[in-house]
């Protein structure tokens, strides 16, 4: 019954999206006013119903209802409960329903809480959101029904890809999806504002919290995904420039550009057309990413089993939405009045350069991601890997960081740069000190990591400059947010550069009792023992790492074997063991047993890395997200609203 | 400076930036893109020594050989038409096995051995690199029996 109910709810929600679309469109064509009053409640109901349908899908996974095809293919009754729940979105259909749920809920939130926009712009925005939902409903219902029943229920399910059986699955996909789909609100705002020609500070201020919000989730999702790949794959890397990573980075770059340009539009009423354009690009890039991942064009753990029909469907949807929005933009761009003017040396000027660099990096990453697909269509099989991306994105990112140093110190509209120069010396000194120290004592370092660490030094000090000579208690939250986020960029950059400059690696076949040296650690291999997990068996290695100071720590990397379930092949995964120290992380992977002369294994492959400052990368990501969150709280005036409510409550309490 | 000039400078900057990015991207792609090669293409002399590339094929039955250091393996990659010896130092991925598909990043050494930096294996029935999907079905069965 649950599956049928879920499907019915999806159809009703789709009908509600259809209703919002028609009512909104009629109203916007100078139709009757009472139609417009339908749009808000319909949007809210659509969001709630989709969310309930998604909850029902999770219930099916929790109950291990094997008569539902999706559950039978992706779950198993022996799986730990958390992975049963998370398994609901660890597949194509379930994740598409998650996508729709977020799309619907963000529409509902706009309908409920957005009070700053003109009524007709809001209706146009909700109509655009309903149009987006409708297309993805069609995709889900016609080609990827998650509630499909099997004619005969198998005794048990095929289980979930062991690589996905990790706490990361509970956190990383939903966070990233909230970010991807949250950008749809900015897209709809842009379309709505283009339709009603209300492009100005009010529109920018209304859109700003949404951009910030989805960008926070994108940042957290990417950071979590990076850490997950780092410890789960056992390859020791934190970013592989895998196409799937790139398609998450591209909307993030667009979001970063957008939240800076929307600041210009909101504060200074400039860059209006450009902000609208970026808002369209943001969600378009989310859709391009979804298409690339789900069309089967790329190779990755993220690509689901897909048939070409689904790819074509998505391609058509994407062409419709992106093409439609861009056409609307082309028609209306001419009518967007010229924004306020500003000098080249000004806050606006620096943000324009920031946007230019971010979009250039975006374009180059997109080029590298799409190039193999285009080349394949022309008969050449090509892969584009880290050397390309490091070469194109590395230098541009460093220049971007230097612009980031200057931007916050410049005044709006026009600046002669004097304040900038008066505040730069400490930062330049910090950068120079790092550079000299590295050149003198750092040994042989690549140019990019060397510059990376020096620039990180400059940025770390300069990012704090906006707080100097200021009453810290009176400093507005968004300023704190900006400072924290920029400081986070410096922390992450330092981590990336230090890790690639000073990484130490050992790969050996060690017999029990043998000691391996990596960096300053003496690591003794104590042997292996078999252990059993809830749905796997494993070989657990035991390593004792001793620091020069004499402290010793035990690491237990595992090599896990998951049995093949219901006709699937068995799978092995490596669970790396991590030892986090103030200076970095020791990373240990247990490889395969090595047979000795008599055929029984007497040695085991061990891979050990010392990764200096590596955890700074994710700390930086967290700081960036936290900074953006502070800005969001400030911008959405959540505190103000809360204070007003508290005051009102207090008043009520004391009222006679 | 007049506002008009400022706008012009910004526009010129943007154009220069885009042109520069285009040149940067194109040259980097030309230098850094790695071709996907099959053993047959390598046998036909399509791959230059030392050039970064990606090799796809099946691991021939009975060909995996472990060297004394315990972490280096040699095996033969085949596509049914030709085969290439591969050498790899590292931990092979889960599910790397004889008669199953693999993709290796690396380069050809002068002696005709492919030296892999990284090996990716076919993960499970539901995960197959599209590049391997092009290989004829049942390649494993056609692999030379040793």
From TrEMBL, chain B:
Residues that, per the record, bind heme: 123, 127
Localisation: Cell membrane; Membrane
Annotated membrane topology: Single-pass type II membrane protein
Keywords of the record: Cell membrane, Cytochrome c-type biogenesis, Heme, Iron, Membrane, Metal-binding, Signal-anchor, Transmembrane, Transmembrane helix
Keyword Protein transport: no
Main location: membrane
Region span, Disordered: 127-146
Key word Chloroplast present: no
InterPro entries cross-referenced by the UniProt entry: CcmE, CcmE-like_sf, NA-bd_OB-fold
Extracellular topological segments: 29-146
Membrane topology, Cytoplasmic segments: 1-7
SUPFAM superfamilies: Heme chaperone CcmE
TM helices/strands, residue ranges: none
One Pfam family linked to the record: CcmE
Task of the protein: Heme chaperone required for the biogenesis of c-type cytochromes. Transiently binds heme delivered by CcmC and transfers the heme to apo-cytochromes in a process facilitated by CcmF and CcmH.
Family statement: Belongs to the CcmE/CycJ family.
The protein's name: Cytochrome c-type biogenesis protein CcmE
């Amino acid at each position: 019954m649950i599956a049928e109910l879920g499907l019915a709810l999806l159809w009703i929600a789709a009908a509600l999206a259809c209703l919002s679309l028609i009512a909104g469109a009629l109203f916007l064509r100078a139709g009757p006013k009472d139609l417009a009053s339908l749009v808000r409640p319909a949007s809210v109901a659509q969001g709630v119903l989709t969310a309930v349908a998604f909850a029902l899908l999770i219930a099916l996974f929790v109950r291990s209802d094997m008569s539902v095809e999706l559950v039978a293919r992706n779950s198993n009754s022996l799986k730990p409960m958390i992975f049963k729940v998370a398994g609901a979105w660890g597949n194509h259909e379930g994740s598409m329903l998650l996508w729709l749920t977020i799309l619907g809920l963000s529409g509902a939130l706009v309908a409920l809480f957005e009070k700053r926009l003109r009524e007709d712009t809001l209706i146009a925005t909700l109509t655009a959101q309903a149009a987006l939902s409708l297309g993805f409903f069609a995709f889900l219902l016609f080609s990827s029904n998650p509630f499909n029943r099997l004619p005969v229920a198998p005794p048990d399910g095929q289980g979930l890809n062991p690589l996905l059986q990790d706490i990361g699955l509970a956190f990383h996909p939903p966070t990233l999806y909230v970010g991807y789909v949250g950008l749809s609100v900015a897209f709809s705002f842009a379309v709505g504002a283009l339709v009603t020609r209300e492009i100005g500070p009010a529109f920018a201020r209304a859109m700003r919290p949404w951009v910030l919000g989805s960008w926070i989730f994108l940042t957290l999702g990417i950071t979590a995904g990076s850490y997950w790949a780092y410890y789960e794959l056992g390859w020791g890397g934190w970013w592989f420039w895998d196409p799937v990573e790139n398609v998450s980075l591209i909307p993030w770059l667009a979001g970063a550009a957008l939240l800076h340009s929307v600041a210009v539009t909101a504060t200074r009423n400039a860059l209006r057309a450009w902000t609208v354009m970026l808002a369209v690009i943001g969600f378009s890039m989310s859709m391009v990413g979804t298409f690339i991942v789900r069309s089967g064009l790329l190779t990755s753990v993220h690509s689901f089993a897909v048939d070409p029909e689904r790819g074509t469907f998505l391609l058509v949807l994407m062409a419709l939405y992106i093409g439609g929005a861009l056409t609307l933009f082309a028609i209306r761009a001419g009518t967007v009045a010229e924004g306020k003017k500003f000098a080249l040396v000004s806050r606006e000027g620096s943000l324009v350069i920031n946007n230019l660099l971010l979009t250039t990096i975006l374009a180059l990453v997109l080029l590298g991601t799409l190039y193999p697909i285009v080349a394949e269509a022309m008969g050449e099989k090509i892969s584009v890997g880290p050397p390309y991306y490091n070469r194109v994105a590395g230098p541009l990112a460093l220049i971007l960081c230097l612009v980031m140093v200057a931007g916050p110190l410049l005044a709006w509209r026009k600046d002669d740069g004097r304040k900038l120069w008066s505040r730069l010396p400490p930062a330049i000194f910090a950068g120079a000190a790092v550079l000299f120290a590295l050149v003198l004592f750092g040994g042989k370092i690549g140019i990019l990591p060397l510059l990376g660490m020096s620039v990180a030094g400059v940025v770390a000090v300069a990012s704090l400059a906006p707080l100097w000579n200021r009453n810290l208690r009176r400093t507005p939250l968004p300023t704190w947010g900006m400072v924290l986020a920029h400081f986070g960029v410096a922390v992450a950059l330092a981590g990336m550069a230090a890790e690639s400059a000073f990484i130490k690696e050992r790969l050996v076949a060690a017999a029990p009792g043998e000691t391996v040296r990596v960096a300053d650690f003496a690591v003794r291999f104590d042997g292996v023992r078999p252990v059993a997990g809830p749905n796997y068996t494993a070989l657990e290695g035991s390593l004792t790492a001793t620091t020069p100071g004499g402290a010793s720590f035990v690491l237990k990397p595992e090599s896990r074997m998951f049995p093949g379930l219901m006709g699937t092949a068995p799978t092995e995964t490596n669970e790396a063991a991590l030892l986090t120290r103030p200076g970095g992380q020791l990373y240990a992977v247990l490889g395969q047993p090595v047979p000795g002369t008599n055929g029984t294994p007497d040695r085991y492959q061990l891979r050990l890395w010392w990764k200096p400052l590596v955890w700074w990368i994710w700390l930086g990501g967290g700081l960036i997200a936290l900074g953006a969150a502070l800005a969001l709280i400030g911008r959405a005036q959540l505190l103000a609203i809360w204070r007003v409510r508290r005051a009102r409550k207090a008043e009520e309490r004391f009222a006679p | 400076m007049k506002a008009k000039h400022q706008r012009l400078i910004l526009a010129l900057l943007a154009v220069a930036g885009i042109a520069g990015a285009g040149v940067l991207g194109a040259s980097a792609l030309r230098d850094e893109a790695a071709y996907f090669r099959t053993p047959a293409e390598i046998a036909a002399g399509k791959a230059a020594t030392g050039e970064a590339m990606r090799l796809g094929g099946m691991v021939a039955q009975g060909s995996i050989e472990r060297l004394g250091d315990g972490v280096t393996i040699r095996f033969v990659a085949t596509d049914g038409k030709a085969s290439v010896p591969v050498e790899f130092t590292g931990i092979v991925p889960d599910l790397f096995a004889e008669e199953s598909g693999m993709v290796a990043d690396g380069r050809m050494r002068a002696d005709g051995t492919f030296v892999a930096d990284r090996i990716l294996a076919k993960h499970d029935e539901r995960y197959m690199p599209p590049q391997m999907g092009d290989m004829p079905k049942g390649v494993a069965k056609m692999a030379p029996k040793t």
